[in-house]
Write a structure and sequence with these properties.
The protein is α/β, with parallel strands linked by helices. It contains twelve helices and twelve strands. Helix 5 packs across helix 6. The protein binds ligand PBG. The site of ligand PBG has 12 residues, from helix 7.
Amino acid sequence: AYAAVREDNRSGGLGLTQRPRRNRKAEWSRRLVREHTLTVDDLIWPMFVIEGEGKREPVASMPGVERLTVDEIVRDAERAVRLGIPAIAFFPFTDASLRDPVGSEALNAKNLVCRAVRAVKREFPELGVVTDVALDPYTSHGHDGLMRDGAILNDETVAVLVEQSLIQAEAGTDVIAPSDMMDGRVGAIRRALDKAGFLDVQIMAYAAKYASAFYGPFRDAIGTKSALVGDKRTYQMDPGNSAEALREVALDLEEGADSVMVKPGLPYLDIIRRVRDTFEVPTFAYQVSGEYAMIEAAARNGWLDGERAMVEALLAFKRAGADGVLTYHAPRVAERLRAL
Ligand code: PBG
């Protein structure tokens, strides 16, 4: 009986005309049929800025990520240039003594972000610089906007965000990335930038930004974790919603956004796909701090192969339709891609 089975197999046992495994049989073939690839052109590298000089401070909940003084930011910017990473993004760790209820430090033209922008653009004018617009790194209550009687005020906040954007544009930023989720801020910022002559400063809108538990390590990195009063569910989106993301994106585009972002990343790949298919505009994903921490924690425990998980997760964004990804893995994955 066994001999008969063997005879049958030799003659093409199951009689299949389609055998998808044939295309997977060797690396040369897998490379030829691969639909999506990750390249260094897909990466935006977020960095944390601290006061001082010559310091690199580890972020406990994000192993491998450090807060850098401005001079060290310039060194990492050089690394970005060397690796061919197109753009970097800045987030400040503001000293507690500089935080107040209205986030005044956001409007200080010499704040950490503005100094980092100036220093990097002076040395590397060709490197793209993205700056976040929102008040949370600067407010004593840790919210992205102004607060009255426990409520986040929309229009009053937008007026401040406009000023913050102008200050960042004056410092030389290339891309304003409003991450605050106030209504109407993209339009207000665009009008103000144009009026001030910053016609070429782009707006990358955090259009579909969800109220997510995955931001935990970031709040640790910028020191707002213990400060945050309550949560951000009155302005960031409900994780149960999908159609609402399209509405948010449509509004930001009408208001003048040059590109849109979905955030967090992996848990929201369906949103990236819907946005990309609906609008066909440059769409970015933010693989946030908690996603980075999950991969690193498991890898450091020996529970998964961190290098492979890193590349697979980033490739998933491309497959979902993203044009690029903000990722804390940017320098490592760029190094790996270069070695291949
Ligand atoms: C705040 C902001 C957050 C992130 C980017 N900008 C956190 C928040 O909304 O609380 C999160 C990034 C990350 O988790 O990596 N405006």
